[in-house]
Amino acid sequence: MLITATTILGILMAVTMVFIRMKASRRPASKARIILPPLFMSTGAFMFFVPAFQVSWQQVLEAFSVGVIFSIFLIKSSNFEVRNGNIYLIPSKAFIFILFGLLIVRIILKLIIGKTISLGETSGMFFLLAFGMILSWRIAMLWKFSRIEKRVNDSLTS
Q1: Taking all residues of the chain, what is their mean pLDDT, rounded to a whole number?
Q2: Burial class of residue 132 (count of CB atoms within 10 Å of its CB; 0-12, 13-18, 19+)
Q3: What is the pLDDT of residues 25-41, one digit of tens each?
Q4: Vertex 102 angle, CA 72 and 14, to 5°
Q5: pLDDT of residue 3
């Protein structure tokens, strides 16, 4: 029952993410809009103060590393363009498929891992996976954004 509920919640979060991403592409990007999501998500690490969610350092490294690997697909699909002197995130048609593909892989992994470790540990590991994914994705976006911003600023001062 809990696995079904968390799977449905994951699907709802993915659908919400698609709408947020599409809406965000209508406004100019900024460093704050890139940096804030991982900062807000980082508060979820308080879950590790509860013993049921604590995982070993090896599990931390494994989950975070898988998240970084998964982020490659998001990094490749996230690009910016300059319009009217502002920098916009280009909405990628592949983003929806990548997001749902990653969700399916995460659900399969959760079903496999959930049979061998507790629900709390599974939750902790998938938080770390998601955090590794969003943190590395957003760092790459910030790097891309900064390069374009510098180019725009250089062209304005020339």
Answers
A1: 87
A2: buried
A3: 789 999 999 999 999 99
A4: 115
A5: 67
Contact 6, 84 (CB under 8 A): no
Closest alpha carbon to 55 in 151, 145, 122 = 122
Which residues share a beta bridge with 79?
A: 90
**90-141 pLDDT, tens per residue?**
877 777 787 778 778 877 877 787 778 887 888 898 889 989 999 999 999 9
DSSP string, 30-89: -HHHHHHHHHHHHGGGGGGGSGGG---HHHHHHHHHHHHHHHHHHHHH-EEEEETTEEEE
CA-to-CA distance for 130 and 38, rounded, in angstroms? Answer: 10
Q: What is the pLDDT of residue 72?
A: 93
- Grade residue 158 by pLDDT with cuts at 50, 70 and 90: low
Please answer whether residues 98 and 77 qualify as being in contact, where contact means their C-beta atoms are separated by less than 8 angstroms. yes
Place of tokens 């809990």: 2
